[in-house]
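Hey, resending since the last one bounced:
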Amino acid sequence: MHWIFYGTYRKIIEAAVIVVGLYCLLDLFNVMLDPPYIVSAIAGVFVLFCLWILPAADRHLEREKMPACQDDAKKATAEITKNATLSRQNRVWNVLLFLSISLITFIVLHFFVLYMHEFSHSFAAYFSGAKADPFNIIWGRGIFGVNCDENVDYQTLFAAGKGTTAAAIAFAGPLSNILLFIVTAALLSWTAVQARPWVYHSVFWASGITFMMVFEYVFTRSFMTHDDFGNIEHGLGLSPWFIFIPGLILGLIGLWYILTVMVPGHYRIVTPGELPNQYVTIALLSFVFFLLYIGVRILAYPAVPEWWMGCVGIVALFITPLLLSPRRLWVRKNTGE
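The structure tokens again:
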């Protein structure tokens, strides 16, 4: 990670970043420490899974493939040997530093995308005459903006027979996310962005966050009677299936693109040859996507289908790092290693 910090005070700066990153990690767990503590327990199991089970499973699969894939096995062995030349202390330091940078990146961009989403609602309400002050939103609390809201009175709009206006305001938030995802995904293909690892890293996380905010809504909340899609369906008189089926199809295509194109690209450009940090990337991405955004919906039990969508997210939480491991043969081919 020579591209991150330079200068005489490099170690001091790195230490400060690690302290901030660990604080962010603790605060992230604190957000999930609500009764009945199911989500926090799953998070703990996932950490143990990433530290021991995932690397062990990868090594086992590598040994099975060695006779058929000698060249790839030699490359993998060379990479492991290269990593082993670093002292254990340096390896732990580098992993903590990269984890901290990734966490800070996620939190900062999550704030940006979250408030972009809410202000899109609020300004749409302002321009449609449904709100006097577009900056009057509920800001939420904590470093994750918990309970942030656009502060639009949809019920008054429905009562006044302005369902179409309410639906347009509700759609403004997801629309801003969709547009941002298209822009950021396109930027990741630019040579100028790929030549700058820290820029690619930031755009990568912005793209993933803005995509997952919409995908989570489609996947877990299409059948709710409130929130964005509930207000859209109510305002336009649509069946939830009208949003859920096409939204899910498009969302799965977007998810496939992120996992099969953007993630290997991140391995190749941001952490080339840095196997532990590549594990950090896929573990954190899976944690954010499938536990923080989707898996928490198990707390909605017994609401159907929201809570079992959360169960699907938890299954994906553990499967995704195995499928997207930097040691998978197809991933290595995509990264050019």
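DSSP finds 13 helices and no strands in the chain.

Sorry for the duplicate.
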